[in-house]
Amino acid sequence: MYQEKLTANHDEVYEIMLMNQTKNRFYHPNAPHIEIRKTITDWIFQVSQDLKISPDTTCAIIAYVDTILCKTEVSKENLQLVILTCLILASK
Q: How far apart are the C-alpha atoms of 15 and 7, rounded to whole Å?
């Protein structure tokens, strides 16, 4: 069972996180960033792999990004800046 989780692809992880996050208080299924959330999470996974960031930190990054994007409108030009700021905060 643990081995199956290690071999999950990004789509499976995204679906699992989406199901789990519906229970979180900050998650809004109709938030404006939902359409690009898969792209955001894929980019975060890629950066996390390149920087050898732990899975727990990666999940924290995604949670921070979701929280910010649910409460604040962020332009596409500033999206990477917001994500990288969340990466720095989650890695502390």
A: 15
Residues in the chain with pLDDT < 50?
1-7, 25
- Domain map of the chain by residue range? 2-91
Amino acid at position 89, single letter = L
Dihedral (Cα; 62, 64, 68, 69), 10-degree rounding: 10
Q: Is 40 helix (H, G, I), strand (E, B) or coil?
A: helix
Alpha carbons 29 and 80: distance in angstroms, whole number: 22
pLDDT tens-digit map of 70-82: 788 888 888 889 9
- Tokens 């809004």 found at: 28
pLDDT value, residue 26: 52
CATH code given to domain 2-91? 1.10.472
